[in-house]
Design goal:
It is a single chain. This protein is α/β, with parallel strands linked by helices. The chain has three domains: 4-119, 2-Layer Sandwich (Nucleotidyltransferase, domain 5), CATH 3.30.420.40; 131-264, Orthogonal Bundle (Helix Hairpins); 271-411, no CATH class. It is built from 18 helices and seven strands. It has helices at 41-51, 67-74, 84-94, 102-116, 128-161, 163-168, 175-183, 187-204, 210-221, 230-267, 271-275, 281-292, 303-310, 333-349, 351-362, 367-388, 394-403, 407-411; strands at residues 9-14, 19-25, 31-38, 57-61, 78-81, 315-319, 322-326. The strands form two sheets. A five-stranded mixed sheet has the order 3-2-1-4-5. A two-stranded antiparallel ribbon has the order 6-7. The longest helix has 38 residues, at 230-267. The radius of gyration is 27 Å and the shape is globular. The chain starts with 8 loop residues before the first strand and ends in a 6-residue tail after the last helix.
Length: 417
């Protein structure tokens, strides 16, 4: 990868789904290339022909992933991702009138790279194992979001015609709840089935528990007494069954994703580092590895850069005597989401994490803010792990806390012998 000092031509790349706009400027800011091309095989051939004579060419683009970035990296281009909010300010700097076009967007990116790019970090090629794991984990999160949307639609349909089903079950992400709707699609069907079939269903799905048995049987027995009208029941029951079948299919795909992620994670040379993190377990450990990576050079060997990437580092705002601290929103959303989940599971798995969280809550912080503060601390630990290439050691961390006089230790209750 070439350094910014070796760049002779600066390109702005305004990407789109169907076509892209490119503007290239030289060291003096003169436009030496200005063209558009389609996102097709012939279009990218045109891109190669137009840029072949520019040695030392780098591009600024408003994203750090996607088809356009992948193609640029395959062309061995130097790629600098730009935050869309920053790109907007660069465009306003070139066009104070507010004029906007693909050409203006590409030109403003090229000029921003020429004038300010010396402080930017180019994208680095990731090894195939890490790249596959990252995309699988991100796509898994997308499928989980789709499952949540389907579950919400299913619950809304049940509210309209089948309240007893909602009363009987409390977790509609479980397959047995979908099987229940398929087996007993309407309150009338449930009433006609009789208690013997209800009990058989509960036994087959291992739901015969004293804590919930009476509530479920009472809900089943009264299902036909409080329900939607005949017309609503006929229509909404068909929707509910359709959603349940979709959810079963989607869950099968999620299970396949989980198996593939587990296989890739086990094969990754640094899997033992992230598997050692308390609370990460089998789901979050691969996501943490995919989101954070195992190369500290990606973060300029500085844990504060990692914290900024994850969105846990707050932003300080000061003007005159006014001073405020704001949440950082310009960050890697997948990384922030993953670290947030891990902080929540970490506090349940580690005593000092729970004490730290509760202290922040006692200070008046919200649940999300307290988790961000905990995540800010945890990322320092993760950074040290990927630098030293050593798994998490709870005893070593406790000794370091004691050495530095951490206030957390004073609040942790000693474990009884």
């Amino acid at each position: 990868m070439k350094s910014s000092q070796q760049i002779i031509y600066y390109g702005g790349f305004d990407w789109g789904r169907e076509h892209h706009a490119v503007v290239v400027v030289d060291l003096q800011g003169q436009i030496v290339a200005d063209f558009q091309f389609d996102h097709t095989r012939s279009g990218w051939q045109k891109f190669r022909e137009k840029t072949a004579s520019f040695t030392g060419l780098a591009f600024a683009i408003e994203t750090n992933q996607g088809a356009a970035v992948d193609q640029l990296l395959q062309q061995e281009c130097i790629v600098y991702p730009v935050n869309p909010a920053s790109a907007k300010s660069y465009r306003q700097r070139k066009m104070p009138s507010g004029a906007k076009s693909d050409h203006v967007d590409a030109w403003s990116l090229a000029e921003a790279l020429r004038l300010d790019g010396h402080g930017w970090k180019p994208l680095k090629l990731t090894d195939d194992a890490s790249l596959k794991l990252k995309w699988l984990c991100q796509d898994e999160v997308v499928l989980i979001s789709q499952r949540t949307q389907l579950v919400n639609q299913l619950q809304q349909a049940l509210v309209e015609y089948y309240p007893a089903a909602l009363e009987a079950f409390d977790d509609w992400t479980q397959s047995y709840t979908w099987d229940f709707i398929i087996a007993f699609p309407t309150p009338t069907a449930l009433a006609k089935a009789g208690q013997r079939r209800w009990q058989k269903f509960l036994h087959l799905h291992r739901l015969w528990r004293p804590a919930t048995l009476d509530q479920r049987l009472q809900a089943f027995a009264g299902a036909d007494q409080f329900k939607g009208s005949a017309a609503i029941t006929e229509v909404k029951s068909q929707l509910a069954v359709s959603l349940c079948k979709l959810l079963r299919t989607l869950q099968q795909q999620l299970d396949d994703y989980r198996q593939k992620i587990a296989e890739l994670f086990a094969q990754h040379p640094d899997h033992h580092l992230f598997a050692s993190l308390p609370g990460a377990k089998t789901k979050l450990a691969p996501r943490l590895l995919a989101a954070i990576g195992s190369d500290p050079g990606r973060y300029a060997n500085d844990p504060h850069v990692l914290q900024a990437f994850a969105g846990t580092a707050p932003i300080s705002f000061q003007s005159g005597q006014h001073h405020a601290v704001k949440m950082r929103r310009a960050c890697d959303k997948f990384l922030r989401y993953t670290v947030h989940l891990w902080a929540d599971t970490f506090r349940r798995a580690c005593p000092w994490g729970d004490v730290y969280y509760k202290q922040k809550r006692a200070e008046g912080m919200s649940h999300a803010c307290a988790l961000r503060c905990l995540a800010q601390r945890l990322l320092k630990i993760v950074f040290r792990i990927i630098v030293d290439k050593k798994p998490y050691d709870a005893e070593l961390h406790a000794r370091n806390q004691q050495k530095h006089g951490s206030w957390v230790l004073s609040l942790v209750k000693p474990t009884p012998v």
